[in-house]
Design brief:
Blueprint (H helix, E strand, L loop, with lengths): L1 H41 L3 H5 L13 H5 L6 H29 L8 H10 L7 H10 L7 H4 L6 H12 L3 H9 L4 H12 L1 H16 L3 H6 L9 H21 L5 H39 L5
């Protein structure tokens, strides 16, 4: 009787695992397929794409659509602007989060609780986009690439993650360094930073994705400086223009479906260009990301 119950339990567990794997596989497929579909349509023969026969397997492989991006005005300039703000903005944000997160763990710091709570409050209450724009404008950060970087240096959520992570580090390490004559800055540089690599990699991923996908601040702050448009802003402009061109072609006599679909393929290609860098970077950061987000969430 006992053995029968065990066998029934094992069968139920195995059936559950099968459905679990099937569910996760379908969910993964639904997440990945849109990117895969766009990608295979950018490298397949445009005539086949126009006929709608490219769904799962690419055919007539080529890279002409990616080469054609050279004709898109200011695309490379926008790519450089986005890369610059992502690298500099993420680096400064990570360093600021690490240093502030370390400071608010020190009981010796005056008004420590007040400053930390003040940071937390900003996550829930803000004045709105108009006062934010007026503040940025008065600081002279409109039509200036620093307008992308400076407002994002202090990130309260990331500071919370770093603070929580630092509190999980054994205090004996710091105490031994203080006994040896090290100061706060040397302890931070030599002990805290090396041990915080997982959580710093985690917030670096958050920051890099945020900067790379940034869109609204470019529209609001860079109205008079097209040379400082981000890649996502440029993509939006081009997609809007391409849509208008499609409507004109479709309404004009003698229009061909192939020409219209070529514009769509070009839009797919630009979309892939904006996505690929993040997809390439993330696998290298994944092991730090998983470890850091778990350890950084141990305490509240």
């Amino acid at each position: 009787m006992v053995e029968m119950k065990k066998s029934i339990r094992k069968k139920s567990v195995s059936i559950f695992n099968i459905f679990n794997y099937i569910g996760f596989f379908l969910f993964t497929f639904l997440c990945i397929f849109p990117f895969y579909y766009i990608f295979i349509n950018t490298i397949s023969d445009n005539d086949l794409v126009a006929r709608g026969v490219i769904n799962f397997v690419p055919r007539g492989l080529h890279v002409k659509n990616y080469i054609a991006l050279r004709s898109v005005n200011d695309l490379m300039k926008s790519f450089i602007v986005t890369t610059t703000r992502t690298v500099i903005g993420t680096s400064l944000m990570v360093m600021a989060s690490a240093f502030i997160g370390y400071l608010v763990t020190k009981k010796e710091m005056k008004s420590r609780k007040f400053m930390y709570r003040f940071l937390i409050i900003t996550m829930y209450f803000n004045a709105g986009i108009i006062p934010w724009y007026l503040t940025i404008s008065m600081l002279g950060l409109t039509d200036n690439i620093l307008g992308y970087i400076i407002p994002g240096i202090v990130a309260p959520f990331n500071i919370i993650l770093v603070k929580t992570y630092i509190e999980s580090i054994p205090k004996e390490l710091e105490e031994s360094a203080f006994i040896d004559g090290a100061g706060y800055f040397k302890v931070f540089r030599s002990i805290i930073l090396p041990l915080c690599k997982p959580i710093l990699a985690t917030i670096a991923v958050f920051g890099a994705v945020g900067h790379w996908n940034s869109f609204i601040d470019s529209i609001i702050l860079m109205q008079n400086s097209p040379g400082l448009y981000t890649l996502q802003h440029r993509l939006f402009i081009y997609l809007t223009t391409a849509s208008n061109i499609e409507q004109i072609i479709q309404s004009s006599p003698g229009s061909t479906v192939s020409h219209v679909l070529n514009l769509k393929v070009l839009k797919y290609t630009i979309s892939m260009v904006t996505i690929i860098p993040i997809l390439v970077v993330y696998p290298f950061m994944q092991r730090y990301f998983q470890k850091g987000i778990m350890l950084g969430a141990v305490k509240g």
